[in-house]
Task: inverse folding
């Protein structure tokens, strides 16, 4: 067993976990973050991509609205390269109550959320595909955020401040002695080795899995209920701003343009197991109907991919509800010292991606207090690596990069072919990241590079990526072929529930290429492909 | 007799050419290029049956289950079609209809096919192979191909990569760009010079299928220069191997007198009684009715848009609105590797290739359907699409010219 020693172990590599790790590291603690899979593979990577202006909450939860408005500005600065400043509209649909917009404007003024009613004609001029039957439109400062880019930026910042980030390390035990946490034991899935990390504090940021983590420390009765929500990505940007229905929060009330797609979300259905989240056809239909209200013709637009995420909802009678000093809205903290007489363990769940930094600040404040330290939070002041310029990205950012490489006078003949044409990913982008993360699967690389996330869903680029991995010596033919099979298997999870219209045609072409022409399904098999 | 063939894939081109050769007046109306430039450029008949390799494809055709297109087409028409192709495209097709050959693919699988291009044949049964990658051609990754071929246990393969530009100043060239370069004199000599130093005795040389778009002898020239057998491996689209067949068949069709209308989709039909009088061509500016005695629908399947599934789960035939036969139960399943029942949807036909309604009655006595639009096959899994296209085309032409209307 490998042995490590640190002040703090953070369990969970979502936005909350990396945020907490960065915050603790910036306050001078030594930190090890452990994640059972890849960063941002859970709830953080399975949302609609909205960077809240706060507008969504001005009527239902003004406190949240104020927090979101403040964090929107901070995240747009410190995670600049993960954020696109799209702006957003709240629109009253033809059958929606136009009176809600008045409540909205009043709530926004009270909560300090910038919002301005504009002419419907102006909204339609800026967003020509919007339903011409909308009755009111309010402009807000919604943005969109790439959850994976954000998580990796925050993780790199944490690493820069001395933290260690261990992906594919599943926690198998939390060792307790004399009523205090003493160590975390993990299993390294890539090497098969066990790792014991001696520590004085553990932050459990396991999201929907946090009850399982708490149980490892002997805290048996933590109840976390996964609330499943589905999202559907439509090809291209049907809109260029975030479009919200100006109604009390409901299913399918938001359409978010992120990179080259537009994402509609979402639903909220109690799930049994966060590892098995369905994408029921009925809910897909519900999203298409909701999309039709915002953008007529939505149903005949091309759906590319769907996914389901699990919101962690904590049901705990012993949450210290009166103590709100260390809480942000929608966030739950379980203080296991208070609750279970166990020192050195805090469980944090819930919240929103937009307020990840604030949640981290609160939880690390609480940790400092328990450790008897006074160390101020500095996470709002320093941009993460890659965001130093403060420039937010534009939808065309990759096109700009590729153009620059090919511009006359940019040097010799261009030598860097585009491997994924849909997402303008080059060979060197793929190989450089593989070099940095040699244990990564294609899905791990995809989350950071958008490989296979465009209209062809891997039909053309999957083979190239597999071949490059082999050619560059990152994998032999067996490993590369297994990676290809896994990639195709996993892409299908989000494809088959939304297959209709033009994406059926694309899928038929992909089947023709991969199975018909290449005969991928008859390559020698060496392992069962897990879904 | 006036005939209209709709669609310019393998089925449509063969049917149109055969009808013209038999003396019919033929218009071939097509929305765009057909499927051949997307294909592997060989003629499959049946490669896998229930996931198992098929050695004798015509035997599999003879044993086709009811509801499969081959059950209506029959062995005779497939055999006639293969013979016709081999006779008319001697530069580009060779092989024995009775037995499949196993050719390397661009991912390193050994794939069954029936007739293949002469330049591919040395890949069948080669036991010691050098796979030659081109540094600027991203759709052919030599190390992966060689590694997987070796894993089949039938081949000992290794990879080399050479850097010969197709066009100066271009790092990212398509197979088509390379093929045009290979049509120029001198390219084979460049290739030979780059490859020769790496060859060991007794090794066959596998290259991407880029050895000439219109020039049949480039591969032979290269083999002569190297003194080693050379074979081509088909690539994903744009497939040079498929383009060769497309261009050769299109030339043949035109030479036989077929009039080709390219660039306008057919959007409907007008009937008189139960007979189709005309189909509607959405040509630029205004619709046009193409009036004929006989109509042949050869528009393909879901991959071409000939069949469509809407967001409510309804399957339609998009050109003429014909009845479709759709498998019972879920059309799309959760397992990527299983056959998707959806892709077996299509038009049901009688033994003359006339479209049937749900009750099994002929919809229009002068309307025939052939190729990918037919119901009942998993063409990509079975590797059966080309044989269905050619066989159904031969069968329909025989019925039309034999007066079975």
Result:
């Amino acid at each position: 067993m490998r042995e490590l020693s640190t002040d703090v172990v953070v369990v969970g590599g979502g936005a909350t976990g990396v945020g907490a790790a960065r915050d603790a590291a910036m306050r001078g603690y030594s930190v090890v973050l452990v994640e059972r899979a890849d960063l941002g593979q859970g709830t953080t990577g399975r949302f609609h991509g909205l960077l809240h202006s706060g507008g969504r909450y001005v009527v239902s939860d003004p406190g949240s609205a104020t927090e979101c408005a403040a964090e929107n500005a901070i995240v747009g600065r410190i995670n600049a390269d993960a954020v696109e400043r799209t702006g957003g509209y709240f629109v009253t649909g033809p059958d929606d109550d136009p009176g809600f917009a008045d409540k909205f404007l009043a709530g926004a003024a009270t909560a300090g959320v910038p919002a301005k009613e504009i002419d419907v004609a102006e909204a339609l001029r800026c967003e020509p595909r919007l339903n011409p039957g909308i009755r009111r439109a309010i402009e807000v400062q919604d943005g969109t955020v790439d959850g994976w880019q954000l998580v990796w930026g925050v993780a790199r910042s944490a690493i820069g401040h001395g933290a260690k980030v261990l992906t594919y390390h599943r926690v198998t035990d939390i060792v307790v002695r004399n009523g205090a946490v003493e160590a975390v034991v993990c299993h390294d899935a890539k090497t098969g080795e066990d790792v014991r990390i001696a520590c004085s504090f553990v932050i459990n940021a396991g999201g929907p899995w946090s009850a399982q983590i708490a149980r490892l420390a002997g805290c048996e009765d933590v109840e976390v209920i996964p609330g499943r929500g589905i999202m559907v990505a439509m090809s291209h940007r049907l809109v260029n701003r975030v479009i919200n229905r100006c109604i009390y929060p409901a299913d399918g009330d938001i359409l978010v343009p992120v990179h080259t797609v537009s994402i509609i979300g979402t639903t909220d259905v109690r799930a049994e197991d966060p590892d098995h989240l369905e994408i029921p056809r009925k809910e897909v239909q519900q999203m298409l109907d909701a999309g039709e209200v915002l953008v007529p013709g939505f149903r005949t637009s091309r759906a590319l991919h769907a996914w389901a995420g699990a919101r962690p909802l904590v049901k705990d009678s012993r949450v210290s509800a009166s103590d709100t000093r260390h809480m942000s809205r929608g966030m739950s903290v379980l203080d296991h010292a208070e609750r279970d007489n166990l020192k050195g363990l805090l469980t944090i769940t819930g919240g929103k991606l937009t307020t990840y930094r604030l949640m981290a600040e609160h939880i690390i404040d609480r940790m400092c207090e328990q450790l008897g330290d006074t160390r101020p939070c500095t996470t709002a002041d320093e941009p993460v690596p890659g965001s130093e310029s403060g420039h937010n990205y534009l939808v065309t950012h990759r096109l700009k990069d590729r153009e620059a490489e090919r511009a006359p006078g940019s040097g010799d003949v261009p030598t860097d072919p585009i491997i994924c044409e849909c997402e303008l990913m080059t060979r060197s982008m793929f190989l450089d990241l593989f070099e940095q993360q040699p244990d990564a699967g294609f899905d791990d690389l995809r989350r950071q590079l958008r490989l296979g996330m465009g209209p062809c869903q891997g039909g053309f680029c999957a083979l190239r990526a597999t071949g490059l991995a082999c050619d560059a010596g990152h994998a032999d033919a067996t490993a590369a072929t297994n990676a290809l099979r896994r990639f195709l298997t996993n892409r299908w999870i989000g494809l088959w529930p939304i297959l209709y219209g033009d994406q059926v045609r694309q899928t038929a072409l992909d089947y023709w290429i991969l199975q018909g022409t290449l005969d991928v399904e008859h390559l020698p098999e060496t392992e069962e492909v897990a879904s | 007799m006036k005939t209209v063939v709709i669609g310019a894939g393998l089925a449509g081109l063969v049917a149109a050419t055969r009808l013209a050769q038999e003396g019919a007046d033929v218009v071939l109306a097509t929305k765009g290029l057909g499927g051949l430039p997307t294909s592997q450029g060989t003629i499959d008949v049946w490669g896998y049956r229930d996931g198992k390799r098929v050695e004798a494809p015509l035997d599999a055709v003879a044993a086709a289950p009811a509801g499969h297109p081959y059950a209506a087409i029959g062995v005779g028409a497939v055999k006639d079609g293969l013979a016709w192709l081999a006779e008319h495209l001697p530069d580009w097709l060779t092989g024995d209809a009775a037995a499949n050959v196993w050719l390397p693919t661009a991912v390193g699988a050994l794939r069954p096919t029936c007739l293949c291009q002469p330049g591919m044949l040395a890949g069948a049964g080669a036991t010691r192979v050098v796979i030659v990658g081109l540094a600027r051609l991203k759709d052919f990754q030599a190390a992966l191909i060689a590694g997987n071929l070796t894993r089949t246990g039938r081949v000992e393969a290794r990879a080399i990569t050479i850097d010969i530009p197709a066009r100066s100043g271009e790092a990212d060239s398509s197979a088509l760009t390379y093929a045009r370069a290979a049509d120029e004199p001198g390219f084979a000599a460049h290739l030979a010079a780059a490859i020769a130093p790496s060859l060991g005795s007794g090794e066959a040389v596998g290259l991407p299928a880029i050895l000439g778009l219109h020039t049949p002898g480039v591969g032979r020239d290269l083999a002569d220069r190297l003194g080693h057998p050379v074979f081509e491996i088909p690539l994903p689209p744009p497939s040079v191997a498929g383009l060769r067949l497309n261009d050769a068949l299109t030339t043949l069709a035109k030479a036989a007198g077929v009039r080709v209308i390219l660039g306008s989709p057919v959007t409907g039909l007008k009937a008189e009684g139960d007979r189709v009088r005309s189909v509607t061509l959405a040509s630029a500016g205004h619709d046009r009715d193409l009036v004929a005695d006989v109509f042949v629908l050869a528009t393909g399947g879901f991959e071409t848009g000939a069949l469509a599934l809407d967001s409510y789960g309804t399957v339609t035939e998009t050109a003429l609105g014909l009845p479709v036969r759709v498998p019972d139960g879920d059309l799309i399943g959760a397992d990527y590797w299983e056959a998707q029942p959806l892709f077996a949807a299509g038009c049901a036909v009688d033994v003359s290739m006339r479209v049937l309604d749900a009750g099994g009655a002929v919809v229009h006595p002068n309307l025939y359907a052939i190729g990918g639009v037919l119901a009942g096959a998993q063409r990509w899994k079975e590797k059966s699409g080309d044989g269905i296209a050619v066989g159904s085309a031969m069968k329909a032409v025989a019925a039309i010219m034999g007066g079975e209307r």
